[in-house]
Each structure stands twice: as structure tokens, then as C-alpha cells.
């Protein structure tokens, strides 16, 4: 076990020197997370808008379901994706298990309900303001959804940032489907868990600091977007 002071010193040295292993792990983490959030937004934003604007039997059940799925246990998602992608599973022929693609799938499953639930609430509130105007102008349903998505774009970017924060900090699901293989599927959270268990705290601390910096950046970006949206609303 390393001395804590020495571990912090080595961690800052790794960060300052842009250690190759550190850069590789951070780069893979960001690629996987951005891909998962992109997939989640491509699926979740239209579905959230559809749930916000349309009225049909069973809608409230879907709203409750997606709100509940926001708290999906990551290890359960990892297990289900593992079963789907394993050799005995229905998608085993794709041979995606223990690859970054499997990690993207797991993260996307975790993030998509968050995107759907939050975007549904944002667009539903906005639709309550515009619904009478849409009806008076006989705006077609698809155009109304597109208009709501565009008008709520700043807030929806904040929703996407919330999904990004959820995905980048994920460890349970990605370690099950990715396997934490060095130079293949080792991301920040799984590397932190591994290095801590080995007692090698320097790399774990360096990666933890990067995660904190990313979390800070996401929160700053969210606040800036909220401020921009408020200014445009009162302009």
C-alpha cells in the first residue's frame, strides 16, 4: 500500500505528464460515453416528445415506467446485456461481448430512460404553453413536436449532460459486459476499481481527479445553458 502523500504526488505527476496509459483509458471512456449518450438522445428525445404531446391509452403507465427505469440497477442491466450478447444468447452471433460496443449498449440502456423521462417533462411543460396556439394554427403533429424540440433545445442539452454524467460514472454494467480488459475495454471507473484493489493508488487517484474535473465541467456547462435559456426566455 502506497503512502497517501506519495500517491497524490504520483497522481499529479501522471496528470501533468499526460501518462500514456491514463490518456488511453480516459479517451476510451469518453468515446464510449459520447456514443452511448448520442444513441440515447436519438432514441429518447423523440420518444419523450411523443409522450409529452400525444394522449393515448396506457400513456400514464409508460410515463411511470420510464420514471421508474431512471433508477435501473446497473448490475442488473449488465447481467441482462451479458445474457443477450453471450454465446448462448440471441445476439451471441454478433460477438460483441467484452468489446466497447457492449459497453455502449449497456450505458445506452441505462441512460435512455433518463433522457425520455426528463425530456418528456420539459416538453410537456412547454406544450402546455403552446398547445392552444398549435390548435388555432392547425399545426401538424410532427411539426409541433419538431418546434417544441427546437424551442427547448437549451434545456434538452442540459438533459443530455445529465445523461452523460450518469454514463461516464458507470461501473457495474460496463465491468460485466466489458470485462475490464487492458487496452481493450478498460475505462476510468473500472480502472479505478482495479487499481484500488491492487493497492496502486496513484493511477486510481489520477483517474478519479479526471472524473471530478469532468463532473465539474458538466455542471458548469449545465448552468451556463440554463442561464442562456433564461436570458432568451426573457429577451
Structure, described:
Pfam families: BPD_transp_1. Keywords: Membrane, Transmembrane, Transmembrane helix, Transport. The chain has 235 residues and is an all-alpha fold. It has a single domain (4-229), classed as MetI-like (MetI-like fold, Orthogonal Bundle). Helices cover 79% and strands 0% of the residues. The protein has 10 helices and no strands. The chain has helices spanning 4-16, 20-53, 59-69, 74-85, 100-136, 141-151, 153-168, 172-178, 188-198, 201-234. The chain starts with a helix and ends with a helix.
Give short descriptive properties of this protein.
single chain, 235 residues, mainly alpha, MetI-like fold, 79% helix, ABC transporter permease, MetI-like_sf, membrane, ABC_perm_TupB-like
Largest sheet: none
Give the helices and strands as they follow along the chain: HHHHHHHHHH
CATH class: Mainly Alpha
Strand-residue proportion: under 5%
**Portion in helices:** over 70%
Ranges where pLDDT stays below 50 over 5 or more residues in a row are none
Compute the CA-based radius of gyration: 21 Å
Count of alpha/pi helices: 10
Rounded to the nearest angstrom, the distance between the terminal CA atoms is 58 Å
Question: What name goes with the CATH superfamily?
Answer: MetI-like
CATH architecture descriptor name: Orthogonal Bundle
Overall 3D form? globular
| Alpha-beta content class | mainly alpha
Average pLDDT score: 89
Topology record:
Elements: H1 4-16, H2 20-53, H3 59-69, H4 74-85, H5 100-136, H6 141-151, H7 153-168, H8 172-178, H9 188-198, H10 201-234
Helix pairs in contact: 1-10, 2-5, 2-7, 3-5, 4-5, 4-8, 5-7, 5-8, 7-10, 9-10
Amino acid at each position: 500500500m502506497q503512502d497517501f502523500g506519495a500517491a497524490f504526488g504520483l497522481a499529479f505527476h501522471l496528470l501533468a505528464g499526460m501518462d500514456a496509459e491514463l490518456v488511453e483509458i480516459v479517451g476510451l471512456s469518453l468515446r464510449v460515453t459520447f456514443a452511448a449518450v448520442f444513441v440515447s438522445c436519438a432514441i429518447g428525445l423523440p420518444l419523450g416528445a411523443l409522450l409529452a404531446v400525444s394522449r393515448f391509452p396506457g400513456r400514464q403507465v409508460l410515463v411511470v415506467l420510464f420514471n421508474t427505469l431512471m433508477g435501473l440497477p446497473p448490475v442488473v442491466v449488465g447481467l441482462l446485456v451479458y445474457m443477450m450478447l453471450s454465446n448462448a444468447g440471441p445476439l451471441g452471433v454478433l460477438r460483441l461481448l467484452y468489446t466497447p460496443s457492449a459497453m455502449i449498449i449497456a450505458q445506452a440502456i441505462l441512460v435512455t430512460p433518463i433522457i425520455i423521462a426528463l425530456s418528456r417533462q420539459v416538453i410537456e411543460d412547454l406544450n402546455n404553453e403552446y398547445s392552444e396556439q398549435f390548435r388555432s394554427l392547425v399545426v401538424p403533429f410532427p411539426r409541433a413536436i419538431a418546434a417544441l424540440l427546437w424551442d427547448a433545445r437549451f434545456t434538452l442539452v442540459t438533459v443530455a449532460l445529465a445523461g452523460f454524467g450518469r454514463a461516464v460514472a458507470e461501473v457495474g454494467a460496463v465491468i460485466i459486459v466489458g470485462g475490464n480488459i487492458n487496452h481493450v475495454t478498460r475505462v476510468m471507473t473500472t480502472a479505478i476499481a482495479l487499481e484500488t484493489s491492487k493497492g496502486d493508488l496513484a493511477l486510481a487517484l489520477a483517474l478519479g481527479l479526471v472524473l471530478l474535473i469532468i463532473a465539474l465541467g458538466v455542471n458548469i456547462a449545465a448552468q451556463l445553458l440554463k442561464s442562456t435559456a433564461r436570458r432568451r426566455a426573457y429577451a
